[in-house]
Each structure stands twice: as C-alpha cells, then as structure tokens.
Amino acid sequence: MEFEGRKKVRLFLNITPLIDVVFLLLIFFMLSSHFVKPQGIKINLPKAQTSQPETEKCIIIFISQDNKIYLDHKPVNIKNLYEQLNSKIEKIAEKKVVLKADKKISLGLAVEVIDIARQSKVENLVISTELTELKEK
Q1: Phi-psi region of 73 (alpha: psi -120 to 50; beta: other; left: phi over 0)
Q2: First and final CA of the chain: distance in angstroms?
Q3: Distance (Å, rounded) from C-alpha 60 to C-alpha 127?
Q4: pLDDT > 70 fraction of the chain, expressed in percent and rounded
C-alpha cells in the first residue's frame, strides 16, 4: 500500500462580481444622496469675528432673505409674533431667544423683531452670526 501525500486543493475565489456589486452600491448612494433636499430655511448669516457657538436649547426666530419670519421653523406673521412668542416663552425654563436673520434683510424688520422679543418675556436675546477667521494685520 502506497501512501499518497495530501492533495493540495487550490481554492480560487473570484471576487470580481463582489467588487462590481460594491461599486454599484457606492454609485447608487452617491447619486441618491444628491436628491435629498435638506429641509430648512435658507439664510446667509452675517459674519463676525467674535462669534461663539450656542449649545443650549432655546427658541429660534428666523428671518429669511424675502423678509418672511419663522418661529421655530413655523411661519408667523409680524402681527402674531408677540402672542406666539409669549406662549412659547412661558413653556421653557430659560427665557432665551436666538435671532437668525439673513444679512440682506432690511434693518427696520430686524429692529421690529428685536423690539417684539424685548417686549415679551425674553430675558436673553442672541443675534446669530457666522464665525470668520481673524485677519492678521
């Protein structure tokens, strides 16, 4: 009886179809991510060098470029802003409002909104800006 050595089994794994599937998935997710439209209000904030990030929960008033006012992402009329702001302020502990206004709005509208916020029970009013890099002189 003659002993035969172990036969070497050569296993060849063809990964070409796997690579094709991975690339197709990659292309699908790259293309479909461009179709998702981010929800929100388009605002170009003014820039300031002394900006600080705001981390606490608070009420946000948006003023878009076309002078539309939003209170926590819900459209409001300037005439109804006082009542709606007061009803929201009463429900939170810290009476803080952040104003995010587009840099191209009229100054009169911004002052009117700030005045309404001060007339209500707001204790702290913050005007939101974008941080710019310091320029060396």
Answers
A1: left
A2: 94
A3: 10
A4: 74
Give Cβ neighbours of residue 112 (< 8 Å, ≥ 6 apart).
78
> Which amino acid, residue 134?
L
| pLDDT per residue as tens digits for the range 1-20 | 566 667 777 778 888 889 99
Instruction: Give the pLDDT confidence of 101-120 residue by residue, as tens digits.
Output: 888 888 888 889 888 888 88
Sorted by where each begins, the domain ranges of the chain are: 47-131
Q: Which of 23-37, 70-84, 100-114 has the lowest mean pLDDT?
A: 23-37
On average, the pLDDT of the chain sits at: 80
DSSP H or E run through 59: strand 59-63
Measured distance CA(18)–CA(24) in Å, rounded: 10
Total residues belonging to the chain? 137
Structure tokens at 52: 């600080």
- pTM of structure: 0.58
Q: Does domain 47-131 have CATH number 3.30.930.10?
A: no
CA–CA distance, 64 with 110 (Å, rounded to integer): 11
